Amino acid sequence: LDLFNYNPNNSKTTMNLFALALSMASVAAFSTAPQAARTSTRLHESFGLGLGEDTYENQPDFLKGEGEYKEWINTVSEDNMLNRKYNVIRRVRELDLLKATADEGILSKLEAQGLDLVTIEKLLPALEEAGLLSLAGNNQQLLVNLVAPLLVEPAPLLLPAVAGALEVGPPAFYALAAALGGLEVVFIATDAQIPLVGLSAPLFAGLLLVPLAAVSAAAGAALGSLKSE
User: Fold this and answer.
1) What is the per-residue DSSP string for 137-178?
2) What average pLDDT values come out for the chain (229 residues) when binned by 10 residues?
3) How far apart are CA 229 and CA 2, in angstroms?
4) Rounded to whole angstroms, how far apart are CA atoms 87 and 92?
5) pTM higher than 0.70 for the full model?
């Protein structure tokens, strides 16, 4: 195509120019325009100036997480509430619970209800399959510091009542569960409040009554199943 010798009367030349212009327009339409460089949205404590410090290395030990805090508090005081463990063996010895258990005949009454060492040995695999033993092993701190005091400290007062209930059998535990549940129902119906403090009895007393009722009913059911075997 000779662009310098263009003859407007030559139809072939005109068609060639038209085809060239159409091709250039098509190329321009499908070509991608250059995109501007994307700016990073990542945030830095140094505001991108390179002046930031490693906060983990520069902060106090007690701010580095729960594990570090527990180790640090031991350096301040070994007798601290955070890492203190309830001494079950010492408290059992101090309260003389073994002698009290023998005097009340708890073990002999349990055997009379069908719960002996052979039965306990048979129950262990079932407890392991249910995951209860693993659950207890993974929550030793909670069991030692929360559950153990609730069982050990009131034991001198509870052992005579437990011995009497074992003497009667499952009906005693069912009756206790019904009494505790009924008391909670009364609190709810009357919207009672705890004297002096004015707190809601259905809520706060229920935190104690409902679990005790459930445990008592479960104990009655367990003894009943042992009796039926």
Assistant:
1) HHTHHHIIIIIHHHHHTTHHHHHHHHHHHHHH-HHHHHHHHH
2) 48 58 57 52 54 60 68 72 79 93 91 85 84 83 85 92 92 94 92 85 88 92 79
3) 112
4) 9
5) no
